[in-house]
Amino acid sequence: MYKVIVADDEPFMLEGWRTMIDWQACGYELCGTATDGEEALSLFNAVEPDLVVTDIQMPVMDGLGLIHTLREDLAYTSKIVIVTGYSDFNYAKQAIRYQVDQYVLKPLVPEEIHQILMEMIEPLDKRREELHQQDDLTFTDDVHVDHLDERRVSEEYDLEQMMNIAKDILTLIEAGDTDPIDNAVNKLLLMTEKAEVSLEWIHHVIRYIHGDLLRKYGKREVCREILCEKEWHETASWSSGTLQELCVRISEQLSQSDLKKLGTGGLVAEAVHELKQHYRSKIKLQDVANRIHVNSAYLGQQFKREMGVSFSDYVHQLRVEEARKLLRRTNMKITDIAFKLGYHDAEYFTQKFRAHTGELPSVYKNKNQG
Question: What is the mean pLDDT of the chain?
Answer without folding.
Answer: 80
